[in-house]
Amino acid sequence: MKVEDGMEVYDPDQSEVIYQPGEKWQDGFCATCFCEGSAGHYEAKCNYVMCPPPVHLIKDYQFEAVDIPYACCQEYKKVACKDDENNNHTVGDTWLVPGDKCSSYSCIRESPQGELKKIKTEISCDNNCQAHQEYVEPPSDSDECCGQCKVVACLDEMGQTHQVGEQWESTITKCHTVHCKESEGQGPISEYMHKVCPLLPPNCPEDKIIRDDDDCCDICTAPPEVCQPQEVNVTDTRGIFEVLSNGRICTNKEPIERYTRCMGKCESQTEYSADKNDYSSMCSCCTPSESENREIDLSCTDDSTYPFSFQQPISCSCTPCTGGEQFNLELPKRYH
User: Per residue in 97-107, pLDDT tens?
Assistant: First the structure.
């Protein structure tokens, strides 16, 4: 045998070497030999290096035998990680643990020249959701370990939650009402709507036009010259209807948009009557001449709702005032 590049190779031309009794020599990388005997009978005896057994039975890795220069025994190098089904995985691969969606294995190399290592990772789910969200677990047939936070309500600027159908005044965006609405695919969303301003009469004097209390809309403070429907400031319509029913009080907690009333000037006069030998008066009042039915839901003290309908004027005219009847042009409260 001879050595080439640190490996033993057979040398057919190697000449025979004679050793004297008591001499010791290295026979390749795996044997240490010596010559012993007496009375003309001599023989070579050798001690051989015992190499460790192969490591193929270690289930977590795939091994490859590697020849080591100037060494007798081969070394076994990890060349792949194995999963529970004996599939090989290379560096960078990650796979799930069978039957456990929240655990995974990874095949890594801790350093450029280091050995492969199979590590197990436990997934920790974050189920801390915001106030307007709730945590939803993944479907049982899903491969996902963790659920997700699903929006179930709206969140206002102050961090308070509101359910679908509720509305509130924005504390940041001036003159806007916020409505909590259901949006397909997104859950509840906050929709901002500018305050609905009443229409200004076309002949309102400029010195009678002022801003409303919220500084959102122009309003006319002059009484209308013509008897006609006039839209009421929407902020003034909250709570105008009140009903007592079965021991509960029901009222409209939300404002009513496009709520109108009859308002304007009608003729009135007082003149002397020779027939009566006295003064007689004639007056006319601005009253509805045509109306439409509107329906709203009132909120009751027992948290129920009460369906309520009322007649709203859509046209007005001056009609004779009847004796003793008073026409209150202020917003009414009604009891049923």
Answer: 888 889 999 99
